Amino acid sequence: MDTLDLLLHPVRLRIVHFMSGSRTRTTSDLCAHLPDVPKTTVYRHVGLLLEGGVLEVVDEQRVHGAVERHYRLRQDRAAIDERAGASMSLDDHRHGFAGAVAALLAEFNTYLDQDGADPVADSVGYRQGILWLNPDELAKMIDTLRGIFIANRTNEPVSGRRPYLLSPIFFPIEEPPPRR
Fold this sequence. Notes:
Helix content: 40-55%
CATH superfamily of the domain at 3-115: Winged helix-like DNA-binding domain superfamily/Winged helix DNA-binding domain
Shape: globular
CATH topology of the domain at 3-115: Arc Repressor Mutant, subunit A
Oligomer: single chain
Number of strands: 3
CATH class of the domain at 3-115: Mainly Alpha
Strand content: 5-15%
Distance between the termini: 50 Å
Mean pLDDT: 88
Low-confidence stretches: none
Radius of gyration: 19 Å
Order of helices and strands: HHEHHEEHHH
Number of helices: 7
CATH architecture of the domain at 3-115: Orthogonal Bundle
Strand order of the largest sheet: 1-3-2
Largest sheet: 3 strands, antiparallel
Structural class: mainly alpha
């Protein structure tokens, strides 16, 4: 399975999100975080991510007669690079966007279902707005956001930090107005 197929699935995308931050997790941890996903489905998708090199086994322990594996995300394999993105067809983009939106909705519902969820106190945001940008302004904005993301993506999970899901989405919504 290629990286596009591997990462453009909503359940696998949620697993990748949950594994970020150099954390190690077991399939039991994943099942607890994804209560809306059947356990057999979680195990199947973990297997696919492992087979595709997106996850790696970092430890194995015997627990009640069974082997419990601890997995870690391979950051170098957990993204669709520019070359792969450029090779995507329009249907691939449609499929990828649908997967990302489905994963985002599922993650948000999981958050809201937690005891004590407080969107105001947690600075939850889901605003949308229209920005009129020329190609250079768009490139500059994307580079600025990319820089912010890169500067913070290696933060380790320590006391006082919690993970936040960031999903920037950019696309033109209409043809540009004719020049006068």
